[in-house]
Amino acid sequence: MSARIFSPAKTAMQSGQAKTGHWVLEFDPEMPRKIDPLMGYTTSRDMKSQIRLTFETREEAVAYAEKNGLAYRVQEPKEAKRRSISYAENFRYDRKIPWTH
């Protein structure tokens, strides 16, 4: 039984950083998913795939995995590249492409 520890990124609908500071422990699937022939739903008999534990810090999540004897891997979060640009940049005289209406 192995697990993945990660810090979730913000969703596409978020502009702020809410719900992104915590760490999550999820179990890796033990058996593949199947497609139900009658309804077409994707099903699985793996109940651990439904477990999602949240922790305040990375160290708490790692300590939990080690205490319970879980093999784990930690995925470090990627830092977002922020480009600071102002509205006045549209009207600069030295633009490479002239701005027209």
Q: How is the largest sheet built, in terms of strand order?
A: 5-2-1-6
The mean pLDDT is: 86
The major pleated sheet works out as: 4 strands, mixed
What portion of the residues fall into strands of 2 or more residues?
Answer: 15-25%
| Overall strand count | 6
Shape: elongated
Task: Calculate the terminal CA-CA distance, rounded to whole Å.
Answer: 60 Å
Radius of gyration of CA atoms, rounded to a whole number: 22 Å
Structural class: mainly beta
Percent of residues in helices:
under 10%
Q: Segments where pLDDT lies below 50 for 5+ residues?
A: none
Q: Tell me the series of helices and strands, N- to C-terminal.
A: EEEEEHE
DSSP summary: helix tally: 1
Question: How would you describe this protein?
Answer:
The chain is mostly beta strands and 101 residues long. It has one helix and six strands. A four-stranded mixed sheet has the order 5-2-1-6, with helices on one face. Strands 3-4 form a two-stranded antiparallel sheet. The chain is elongated and about 60 Å long. 6% of the residues are buried. The mean pLDDT is 86.
Quick take:
This protein is mostly beta strands. It has one helix at 58-67, and strands at 2-6, 23-27, 34-35, 42-43, 52-55, 71-75.
List keywords for this structure.
101 residues; 6 strands; 1 helix; mainly beta; 23% strand
Map the helices and strands:
Layout: E1 2-6, E2 23-27, E3 34-35, E4 42-43, E5 52-55, H1 58-67, E6 71-75
Parallel strand pairs: 1-6
Antiparallel strand pairs: 1-2, 2-5, 3-4
